[in-house]
Amino acid sequence: PPKGKGPQGKRITLKVAKNSVRVAFNGRRRLDLSKMGIATFPKCILELADVEELDLSRNMLKKIPNIIEKFQNLMWLDLHSNQIDELPAAIGTLRSLTYLNLCNNKLKDLPEELTLLRNLRTLNLGLNCLETIPTTLGSLRELTELGLFDNALTIIPKSVKKLPKLEKLNVKRNPLPEFAEEEEPIDTVKRIESLYLVEKKDLCGSCLQTCQGERDELHKLEDTTPGPSNKPSFPSLVTPNSSARDNQEEWRMK
What we know:
By secondary structure, the protein is of the alpha/beta class. It contains six helices and eight strands. The longest helix has 20 residues, at about 205-225. Keywords: Leucine-rich repeat, Repeat. Pfam families: LRR_1, LRR_14.
């Protein structure tokens, strides 16, 4: 067989694959081919298609072929940190999947068939290039965790937000309108933790000078505020407010 070169990645033999099967405490068999430099899906692993878990994370895979449908026992599939730019329709045949990790790939859209995985509890789609997600993702009613962080999403469908068992929904670092609102500057008045009122007689000379200086600056600003006249009249104001305005110099310093 031709030797694997550069972009073709490392060739996985059936012997290597068989030696990579581990049995977990829960009795499931996991085929762990993570960090192996794989660039194309190794067809030889079809011989081990009865495993319950498959880890192909941290490789150089660009495509997952339709033959993934042979792995009908899969409950756990980890494909994170590859270069996958599309998923095959056959992904929807893996009806036993409860965990699917597609984080840190190059997905631009999702196949509708993904919504056939009705037993999914964890779905990680973070760190991809998704601009939209199908509203039909709301049919994955067993989902408890959904990662959509670091994508290009401008809307999260209501059907997804209202998933009945969803406990964790991570949508951070997406250009969503609600994030734009959060970044608005906080009103400076809210930042004042304490405000102390003192009488003029209790201030030392330099403090009094500072306060009077700031008061004069405030008056200058008030005087430069554009308006029809220097002293606009507000006929609708009732008398108490008018008298308060007349006496404001007196009570401002007390």
